[in-house]
Design brief:
Blueprint: H1 2-17, E1 20-26, H2 31-43, E2 47-53, E3 58-63, H3 71-80, E4 84-90
Antiparallel strand pairs: 1-3, 1-4, 2-3
Helix pairs in contact: 2-3
Length: 91
């Protein structure tokens, strides 16, 4: 019982270190859009586990531990790819 509680507590602490980010993106129409956004988010060197959904018009990623990415940096990366970040959610 104590081990299960401790394991759960450690998992919670480690997950709290890396923020999960969700971005509403406008302008995506094809697979190349997905690739462009993924490339630019990777180029920040602050995002990992990147998933861009054409169907949902969203980009999802986690911050690399110890490297906080600002909303301005997220917007700039998506803008550089040719799209607009409408809203950014952090979890």
């Amino acid at each position: 019982m104590k081990i299960a509680i401790l394991t759960g507590l450690l998992a919670f602490c480690f997950s709290a270190l890396a923020a999960r980010v969700e971005v509403d993106v406008s302008g995506m129409t094809c697979g190349m859009c997905v690739e462009s956004i993924t490339k630019e988010l990777k180029a920040t060197e602050k995002a990992e586990k990147i998933l861009v959904s054409l169907e949902n018009k969203k980009a999802y990623f986690e911050e690399i531990k110890g490297k906080k990415i600002s909303d301005t940096e997220v917007r700039a990366a998506i803008k550089k790819a040719g799209y607009d970040a409408i809203k950014i959610y952090r979890k």
